[in-house]
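User: Okay, second chain of the day. Same drill as before: sequence in, structure tokens out.
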Amino acid sequence: MPSETELLQWKKKRTSTYVVFLFFYFLIGLELGCINATLWIYVSTLLKTGNDKLYYGLITAAFYVPSLFFPPIVTRFVDKTRRMKLCFIGVLCLSIAGSILYPIHTSPVFPLAGRFLSGFNIAFAPVIISEVARSFTSKELMQRIPLLNGIIMIGYAFGPCVSILFINIDFWIGGIHITYANVIGPVLFLISVAILLSVVFLSYDLSREYDMKRDTTEANEYTSSKPSRSESTMDIMKRILQTADALLIITLSVFYGIVDQIMFRVLPILIIDKLNFSYTFLNWSFVALSALSTVLVLVLVCWKMSDKQLYYTGLVSVISIMIVTSLQLLTYHKVGNEKTWYLWIIITLFALILFLLSDQAFSVVICAKLAFSYNQGFIEGVRTFAVQSGRIIGGLLIGVYFEYMNVFYIGINVVLILFLFVMISRRRSLSNPVPVI
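Assistant: Same drill. Structure tokens below.
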């Protein structure tokens, strides 16, 4: 246990490092916002592959591929060594390389490779979540983790704004044509370099100096159920799969990942190709989505959510998906007149915000509370693996489910009803999660 002076110094480092984490999450949100608003335009106007929906899905999926193998590896490494900063620097270097490759449209291989390398950003998120979980008290996590995940939506709001600033840009760099569709590559390059410098000079290996969760939360509690530190990776996986709540969260995460792609990636196609609305409307739609989500993030930060209220956010995430699937079906079939279509889009965006924020508040915090300090990163890595596996599946299916939305969306709602029943049956344990893994 550090002295008062040492603890004060450590808390200053914690504040500095947490601010760097916020900037990093902002970058992820900015990138997602820009790419989501421009990727379909990039594929259909610059790449010209002849099979636009296929490559739209492949490039989307490429971003999430690193999350299939990287989180379990890097979280296990950081759990044992606590060398978060070193890994952070490596990930940002990969992201910088990805932002250089993305705008090159001479072959779809370049944007594919660019999105793959940039995907290490979001694959690194479990390490940050685990570091935060070790560095703040259990009550503080109810604000700190939702703020981290919510700041992504603030970045998401700036993404389309950045795209709108460059809507008339048109120039060549050698043989590369830079337009509104791919200008985000150079922009992300500059932002990534700035964040890399902040990591080098302003972040610290917090839990290497002091593990607050271990020394305050776990010191005298749950000792009878505490696993051995020497457990192998397979032993930990068995414990996760044998814990009903953890298994539920991981299964939900796969499904959330699938519907996340189905909802968000279909929206630009519906707005531009189905309803024939303008690029400007698409961008402002995402700006409105993220602006409203920013307000909700601030509410989450100021609102000291209880464990019971956290449970309700899980129910909200499931119900919001049902709303989105219903409204997107109405949009797909062009039910009503043009004013009605605008209404469908607005309500869809609002429901998507509720889905994103409630899912992140619910599943991430529940996982953080289910793990002991020395398994903290690994369980979040497994959850991230599950989410991104779902996103890859959803991205690869874009070219299929868009033409069969009647079947896909009804099937989604049936599965959601089943999840609701299971979550209601697990209400007591989900409302009071304690470390067991």
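The longest strand covers residues 170-173.

User: Thanks, on to the next one.
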